[in-house]
Write a structure and sequence with these properties.
Blueprint: H1 6-23, E1 29-36, E2 43-45, E3 57-65, E4 71-83, E5 87-96, E6 99-108, E7 112-120, E8 128-135, E9 140-148
Antiparallel strand pairs: 1-3, 1-9, 2-3, 3-4, 4-5, 5-6, 6-7, 7-8, 8-9
Length: 150
């Protein structure tokens, strides 16, 4: 009588391959940038009732800096006011020398917001991850991106 170890062998091989893939998965890359809203103020477009109201739009194109405040690109996009005095729904692009990163999500007026990284170009093609954005007292925003690329 002969036994056929093929199904068990295949299962062991598949399990080993999956375990190896999980172990070799790259750690997320972290990139910290500073959006400088001090030099190029965002433009407020008042679309509804006078003052801060739902539907107002914030448009910006500002210098993007590294942690040493050296310019590394641009931070440009727009935000739609969804909750006056509290938050916006935003989308913007971080333009860097080696490609761009697009983010989208809810941006709070105060504190730290977490947005999705929704795409990229160049070196950042196939990017996935998230970004925290912290509104600093000096008129800058610290943006910490945690991502993986293909």
């Amino acid at each position: 009588m002969t036994s056929c170890p093929a199904p068990a062998t295949r299962l062991l091989l598949v399990t080993t391959l999956l375990a190896t893939a999980a172990c070799t998965r790259e750690s997320p890359t972290t990139l910290v940038t500073i959006a400088d809203a001090r030099t190029d103020q965002a433009q407020w477009i008042d679309t509804g009732e006078p003052g801060d109201s739902a539907g107002d739009i914030l448009v910006f194109d500002q210098p993007l800096l590294d942690e040493q405040f050296k310019r590394i690109g641009n931070n440009a996009g727009s935000c739609l006011r969804t909750r006056p005095g509290h938050s916006f729904q935003c989308q913007w692009t971080l333009s860097l020398a080696d490609g761009s990163i697009q983010v989208a999500g809810r941006e709070l007026d105060q504190g730290t917001s977490t947005l999705s990284i929704v795409g990229g170009t160049g070196r950042y093609a196939g990017i996935r991850g998230d970004m925290t954005s912290t509104n600093n007292e000096d008129g800058t925003f610290t943006q910490t991106l945690r991502y993986r690329t293909r």
